[in-house]
């Protein structure tokens, strides 16, 4: 559906018709580019805005891409047999039995999510807050997003009771609701929804005949590796699509390769056909050399498993340290449980921020941090939070270093917080947070 | 806009709402998969359906991809500075002065075309016949396609007079028309529109304020290398977008990397902003390692230029031979001028085909060729031709061999038609065409 819904004017002429899509640059990519600009201007930047793993490609993975570099032929839209078998093994080892025929690959899980949303049509329920692109994609490719708040303390999953209310209400108004998107573990909050919440969500989805799209791109980065990720594919296998990619746990965001696991059965068959149709007209297939490397990655060879283990520990350690720095100035921060995000709330400091800096909204606060102090973070509003909420998403993963050498050192050491560049960045963060939140000294009384 | 336009029913529930996209698999990819199936069934297949260059990746290009295999970071949506500069050089050397800021890359020119159509909105005029995906994309991402016939003997460009009529008529009905797509040289007909036609098209586009999208993916495969490609970017520079990729002249279809050249000036600036917005929410960027290799390719090092020269000669030689085989049985065939396509018309044989085989439509004829004889081609109707037209697109490029060794031999030899596997395929083609078109011997009179 077009973003603009005005009826077409009879006098419309030319290159900017009413149906034209006005899609602003994705905020996460925009902040990445804004940071790069600031750096070029010579500003000392603390890059906490962009959701990138901030780690090098493992040499074994690069080697496999090089080995696939002579693959120039178009292949099946769904992806190579080798990649689909490897992804099926990956999910099967995680308690989600998967046949290769259930797997569809694409140029990033973002593209697959777009194709799924387009295939579903109707309105799509998404958590509030949630990753910036869900709402944008639902507006571009379907009939829009319905944002439903997450339960207290749990990110990534709409509150099941509120979900049911929202869908019933929308349908009673003649609107059509097709699916619900969840993120496990969550971006932006870094939390992981409980099994109980996911089970209840699945019950609601089944009762209301909703397809569940479970974005599990951070699955292997749950900080406590003994903790299970409660995938809706386990509780509503007939209606759950799972997506993942190499972007986060293997730090290959720039490679653009993702996979979707479609449900077995009639819902899955219809969705698969539709998704392949959409993919065939937008991207044809995932790049063949990347497919070759991704097949290797999803087979989980020991050297990559070890790399993911080290990455997980690093993300957990630094996210916890960032959390502590925010808590030290009085912000409230949900304990991060996965990925490399922290989602502090400055509500306790609202009065002071308003009095000292005129801050009324989350965007006021993040603009202050960026323009005055070179700290790049994204306001909660970018993720669907209320404008006035003083929450922000902080990515801790771009603190690991500026060079490959520094990043490898961060992966290698048992105590990354002692590395000078990480310690410096954390101290700089504390300094900025203190400057922004410190009580203003009383103005000296005027003398006359 | 949704493919289905029924109003949403108030009672709609669940996973297949009225807005859901039903996009069938792209016919060109579908025929590729059908051929693979036939082969697995043990059928001797003559693969003439799929628009793939059928040649190996040049080792120097593969080496560059390998050299970029450690690039895992997300980069700018528009692509790396190196790729944009290289593509700007490529176009500038072809008489289209280009600044790097005018270049946007993406995961294939198909994805860029989708993004452009979505950015334009409104209805999109496309030539009839034309590449299968233009109409599908206009239906998925904009308000549909208006097919306008090409001038006699020229493919890839809607007849300028008919274009003007169609746009004026659509607008008088309150519909909004945003752009026109052209293909230079053309797929499916293998012809190249004349400079005069392109100039007139540009005048009409300017008068009617239409953006021109010029798909020039086959530009470097014009059979006569001394012949200039008349790009609308030369005659209507303020409103023409040009797209190209590595898929055809460098046979890297499976790599999924393309570039668009946006016009300089206000139309280009708006389109660029919109295209980057759409790209940021669907594909983020082209894969970083492919960008690295594509920067090398668009810098046109001598070894790749030589490869393209050899490829061009091979395509020209085999397309001409295929043309002769079709002409020998009485089909009419426009002389191929570029790419690796032949577009024969069996109209002169209509009565016989109907009497002997019940063939009434192009699809009847291509089904007969596939099911009875293992020859895979696509009917003209897949490209927007009339159902009853007995035209078909024949890709000549998958005859070069089944192995890399055979394909390299085809590139190396001055006379590829003498290579046994190519000669055999051409003879098999003649045999099938003879069997399908030969006059039926009179039935022996019944004796009793």
From TrEMBL, chains A, B:
<feature type="region of interest" description="Disordered">
    <location>
        <begin position="1"/>
        <end position="26"/>
    </location>
</feature>
<feature type="domain" description="Aminotransferase class I/classII large">
    <location>
        <begin position="63"/>
        <end position="394"/>
    </location>
</feature>
<keyword id="KW-0032">Aminotransferase</keyword>
<feature type="compositionally biased region" description="Polar residues">
    <location>
        <begin position="1"/>
        <end position="16"/>
    </location>
</feature>
<protein>
    <submittedName>
        <fullName>Aminotransferase class I/II-fold pyridoxal phosphate-dependent enzyme</fullName>
    </submittedName>
</protein>
<dbReference type="InterPro" id="IPR015424">
    <property type="entry name" value="PyrdxlP-dep_Trfase"/>
</dbReference>
<dbReference type="Pfam" id="PF00155">
    <property type="entry name" value="Aminotran_1_2"/>
</dbReference>
<dbReference type="InterPro" id="IPR004839">
    <property type="entry name" value="Aminotransferase_I/II_large"/>
</dbReference>
<dbReference type="InterPro" id="IPR050596">
    <property type="entry name" value="AspAT/PAT-like"/>
</dbReference>
<dbReference type="GO" id="GO:0008483">
    <property type="term" value="F:transaminase activity"/>
</dbReference>
<dbReference type="InterPro" id="IPR015421">
    <property type="entry name" value="PyrdxlP-dep_Trfase_major"/>
</dbReference>
<comment type="similarity">
    <text>Belongs to the class-I pyridoxal-phosphate-dependent aminotransferase family.</text>
</comment>
<keyword id="KW-0663">Pyridoxal phosphate</keyword>
<dbReference type="InterPro" id="IPR015422">
    <property type="entry name" value="PyrdxlP-dep_Trfase_small"/>
</dbReference>
<keyword id="KW-0808">Transferase</keyword>
């Amino acid at each position: 559906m077009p973003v603009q819904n005005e009826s077409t004017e009879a006098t419309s002429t030319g290159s900017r018709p009413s149906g034209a899509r006005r899609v602003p640059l994705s905020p996460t990519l925009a902040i990445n580019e804004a940071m790069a600009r600031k750096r070029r201007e010579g500003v000392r930047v603390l890059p906490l805005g962009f959701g990138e793993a901030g780690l090098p490609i493992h040499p074994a993975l690069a080697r496999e891409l090089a080995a696939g570099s002579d693959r120039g032929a178009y292949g099946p839209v769904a992806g190579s047999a080798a990649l689909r078998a490897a992804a099926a093994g990956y999910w099967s080892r995680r308690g989600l039995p998967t046949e290769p025929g259930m797997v569809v690959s694409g140029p990033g899980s973002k593209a697959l999510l777009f194709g799924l949303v387009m295939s579903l049509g109707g309105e799509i329920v998404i958590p509030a807050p949630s990753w910036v692109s869900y709402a944008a994609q639902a507006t571009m490719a379907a009939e829009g997003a319905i944002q439903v708040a997450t339960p207290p303390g749990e990110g990534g999953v709409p509150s099941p009771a509120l979900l049911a209310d929202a869908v019933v209400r929308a349908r009673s108004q003649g609107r059509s609701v097709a699916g619900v998107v969840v993120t496990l573990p969550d971006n932006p909050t870094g939390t992981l929804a409980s099994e109980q919440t996911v089970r209840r969500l699945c019950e609601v989805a089944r009762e209301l005949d909703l397809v569940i799209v479970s974005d599990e791109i951070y699955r292997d980065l749950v900080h406590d590796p003994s903790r299970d990720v409660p995938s809706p594919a386990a509780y509503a296998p007939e209606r759950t699509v799972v997506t993942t990619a190499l972007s986060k746990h293997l730090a290959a965001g720039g490679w653009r390769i993702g996979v979707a696991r479609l449900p077995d059965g009639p819902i899955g068959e219809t969705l698969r056909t539709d998704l392949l149709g959409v993919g065939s007209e937008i991207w044809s297939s995932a790049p063949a050399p990347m497919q070759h490397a991704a097949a290797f990655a999803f087979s989980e060879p020991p050297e990559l498993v070890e790399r993911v283990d080290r990455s997980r520990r690093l993300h957990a350690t630094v996210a916890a340290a960032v959390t502590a720095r925010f808590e030290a100035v009085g912000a409230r921060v949900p304990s991060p449980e996965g990925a490399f995000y922290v989602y502090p709330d400055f509500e306790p400091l609202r009065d002071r921020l308003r009095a000292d800096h005129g801050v009324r909204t989350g965007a006021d606060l993040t603009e202050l941090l960026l323009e005055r102090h070179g700290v790049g973070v994204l306001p909660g509003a970018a993720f669907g939070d209320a404008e006035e909420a003083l929450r922000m998403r902080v990515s801790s993963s771009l603190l690991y270093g500026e060079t490959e050498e520094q990043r490898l050192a961060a992966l290698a050491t048992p105590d990354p917080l002692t590395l000078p560049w990480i310690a410096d960045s954390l101290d700089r963060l504390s300094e900025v947070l203190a400057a922004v939140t410190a009580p203003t000294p009383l103005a000296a009384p005027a003398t006359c």
